[in-house]
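Re: duplicated header lines in exported C-alpha cells

Our pipeline writes sequence and C-alpha cells for each protein into one text file. With two proteins the header for the second block appears twice in some exports. Here is an export where it did not happen, for reference. First protein block:
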Amino acid sequence: MKYKASTLMAVSLAGSVITVFMLVRLFIHGRGVSLFQTHYVPNFKNVPGVDYYDLSNYQGNKDGWQRADRVLFCVPLRDAANHLPMFFKHLKSMTYPHNLIDLSFLVSDSTDDTMGVLLNSLHDLQSQADGTKRFGDIEIFQKDFGQIIGQSFSDRHGFAAQGPRRKLMARARNWLGSAAIKPYHSWVYWRDVDVEYVPETILEDLMHHDKDIIVPNVWRPLPKWLNYIQPYDLNSWVESEGGLQLAASLKEDDVIVEGYPEYATWRVHLAYMRDPNGDPETEMELDGIGGVSILSKAKVFRTGSHFPAFSFEKHAETEAFGKLSRRMKYSVVGLPHYVIWHVYEPSSDDLKHMAWMAEEEQRKMEEAKIREFYAKIWDIGFDDVRDDWEIERARILKNVDPNVLDRKIQVDWSDDDSVPYTEDLDTRKDNRNRDGKVPVDFDPDHN
C-alpha cells in the first residue's frame, strides 16, 4: 500500500505535537504547578489578622444552595413590632440552608417596641435545639434618618409624601447595604417585614433563574367588600414612551411615582400581567422594580449600583435601582405569575368606609328590632278572627229559631219597681183629664 508524502508528513507532525504536549504536562505537574493556573494564589493562613478573598468565587450561582453560596438577608425596620412575629415565622420555614443565610436588620425612626420584639425573636430563633435551623451571622444596626412621614397606609402612600419618602428610604437601604455586605456574600436578598404569605422556597425559586436582579409579583388580599384581592406593588414596570415624555417635562429633582393620576405613564406593570394559571417560571424584563422582595447578586452592589437617594432619570430608590442597574448592563427581571402576598393595610378612605359599615350595621340591628316589635303589634291588631267569629256567632244565636220570628214574647214585670201600680194609673188618668196634658209617664197601652 502506498501513501502520499503530504499525508505522511501530517501524521508525523501531529504525533510530534502530542508527544511534546504530554512531556511538558508531565514535567510541570511533577513540579506541583498547574498548567492552566492564571495567577498566583497567596496563602495567608499563617499570617495573623489577614483575610484573603478572591471575589471571583462569589459571583452567585443559580444552584447556590448546593454550592454553599452565602446569602445576606437585609431587612429595614420601622415601627414593625406588630409584623415581626409573622416575619420570623416565615424565616423559620425557609428551605434554603439556614447556616448559609446571614441576617442584617436596620432599625430606624421607630416609636414602638420594634427593638424589643426583634431581640426576643432572634433569641428564640437562635436557641432552637436543631442546630441546622439556626442562621448564620446576625447584625442589628440602629440609625435614625429623621423620618417625618407617618406609618399609616395613607401617610406612606399619599402622593405628596412619595418623593421625600422614597429618597429617605433609599438612604436607609444604602446605609444598610454598605455596612452589611461582606466579601463572601454571593447574593443579597431585600425583604419587607410586612409580607403575609411567601413560599418557603422563595430564595431557590428566584435564584435558579440566574439573573442579576429578580423580583416576584406582589399582590395583597382584601376584605370581601373590596373584592378580595388586588395588585399591590406597581413599582415594577417596563418603561414607556409616555413615561419618557413625562420625565422630560419634569424638574431636575422631581420623582415619578406609579399608580397616581398626577403621573400618568401608561407603562406595562408586572402586577397587571399576572395570570393565576400562568407558568410561574415565565420571565419579564423590567426597568423599574419594587422593593417588597428583591434578590440580587452581590456583585451588582460591589460594582457600584445602589438605591439612588436623588432623582435618577426622575426616579428614586428601588425604581431608580432598576434603571441604574440596567444602565450598567445587568439583567433586571420580574416573574409575573409567581406571586407573594402583602398584608392588607386599610387606607384612610377604607377606615372611613369601615366606620360607616359599622354604623350601618348598628342601624340595621336597631331597625330590625323595631320591625320585630311592629310586626307583633300588626299581627295582634290585624289578626284574622273570622273563624273565631263563626264559632262565637253560633253560640250567640244557638237559641234563636228563625222559623218563629213573629211569636209574641211575654215579659213579667211584676217584680220590677219601674212598673206602676193600679192606683198610680188612676191618679195619672185623672190628672190628664183635668189639665188636658199628657203625663210624662204616659203609657198608651193603658187608657
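Second protein block, exported in the same file:
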Amino acid sequence: MTTTTTEPIVINTLFRTELAPGTNYAQRHSTQLDKAVEVDVIRAELEEKQFRVNLTVIDTPGFGDYVNNRDCWAPLVDFIDDQYESYMRQEQQPERKQLHDQRVHACLYFIAPTGHTLKPLDIEVMKRLSQRVNLIPVVAKADTLTPRDLALFKERIRDVIRTHGITVFAPPVDSIDEASAEHARALMSSMPFSIIGSTKDVRTYDGRMVRGREYLWGVAEVENEHHCDFKKLRSLLIRTHMLDLIMNTEDYHYENYRQTQMETRKYGEPKVKKFDNPRFKEEEEALRRKFTDQVKLEEGRFRQWEQHLIAERDRLNKDLETAHGAIKQLESEIESLQMASRTQRR
C-alpha cells in the first residue's frame, strides 16, 4: 500500500514505529531559497498479528511554505501520474506475472487548524488531487482547538468540499452487514479526521500510561475518541478499508488515467512531458514582456524616423520650389537684358 502525507510524526504514530524522520526546521529554513516542493519516498515492511504489509510513504516537505505557491501542486500530480504510467507500462509487457505496484492508494491531506475554513490553495490542490487519488482530509494538531471550535471548523470544511465538488474517499456501505455499514457511516461523519500526533507515552491523572501530549490542563490522548479521530483514521487505512482503497485506485483512478492515455496516445508512444515548471513559466512571461516592450520601443523609434524623413522631404521640396522660382526669375531678367541690348543696337 502506498500513501502520501506531509506530517511524518502522524505516520510514526499510525504505525507505531519510526518510519519517517522528524522535521528538521533548520534545514527547512535553509531550503526556502530553493523554492521547490520535494518528494521523499520511504519504504517499509510492517507486520501486525502475522499480517505483513509493504508500506510506501511519500512525504512532501516544502509544500505550501512559500509566499508564491503558484503551481506548487505540480510535483505531487506528476508523481502520482508517473506511478500510474509505470504500472501501465508493466501491463503492456508480454510477461505480467509480477507487477510492481507503486501507485498511490491514499493521500492524507493535512489542513492547518486555523479554525476558519479552507484556504484557496487547499481548495485548488484538493480539487486536483481528488481527481487522481483517494483523498482523505485530516485536521492536524487537533489539540490546539477546543471541542466546539473543532466541530465548527470541520463543518465549515465539509461545506466547502461540497460547494467546490471535491471528491473525498467514501468507504462503501455494506447493505448486508449492518455493523460494517454503521462503522462506514461513522467514518464518513468524522471526515475530516482530527488528529493528534505523538509517539511518546505519558501518564494521565488516573495513573494510566497512554500515547499523547501532556499539558498543564491535562493529557491529550491519541487513542481517545473523545479527544481526536486517530483510531478511526487508523481503522480506515489499515484495519477495515485498506482493500477498498486499493480497489478504488484500481477500478476508478487508475482506470481513468489509463483510458485517457489510450485515447490520446498510440501504443508504445512515450508519455508527453508537460513543461509546467512554475519557474520556467515566470521566466517565459518575463521574456515575453521584455520582447513586447522592445518591439514597442523600436516601433516608436521607427515612427520618429519616418516623421523626420517626411519633414526633411517637405523641406527639400520647398527648397526646390524656391530654387526653381529663382531660376525662372533669372531667366526672365536675362531675357529682358537681351531685348534691351537689341533695341540699343538699332
